[in-house]
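Rather than argue in generalities, we reproduce a single protein record, letters for residues, whole numbers for local backbone shapes, just as it appears below:
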Amino acid sequence: MARKTETLPEDTRPAWLQLLDLETTRQDYQPARRTTGRPSGRPRNPFPRKAVNITLTDDELKMVDGLVDKLGGNIQGIKRGTLIGFMAYLLNEQIKEKDLSQVKLFSDLAALLDQHPQPKPKARRRKAPGLDGQPQSESQEDL
């Protein structure tokens, strides 16, 4: 008799998103214990990160810290580094298929991402001159 095999639903999230989710929910991680007793030193991080220096303005730092605070109630283990990593992955994913040849400024990038489209200048309607060559008044236009 043939056995029915169960298949797990395929995770359609990008690999980077799966990794970040796994990293923020890793509280059950237990390193392998040595047979001689206590482990030596601090256990290795299963998700190694590199220390880097970035420069942010006071407003940017407040914004990043504010996002970490807002999301911290929902996403366990979120830190500045994981948030900035998430933003880098997300931006990379969003611009992967886009033509970046016209992007010269951040406002161009924002317009490309459709988050902050650049306002189009309004076409100014010229008033046709009246019989005397002067622009028509409002009351003459309405007639």
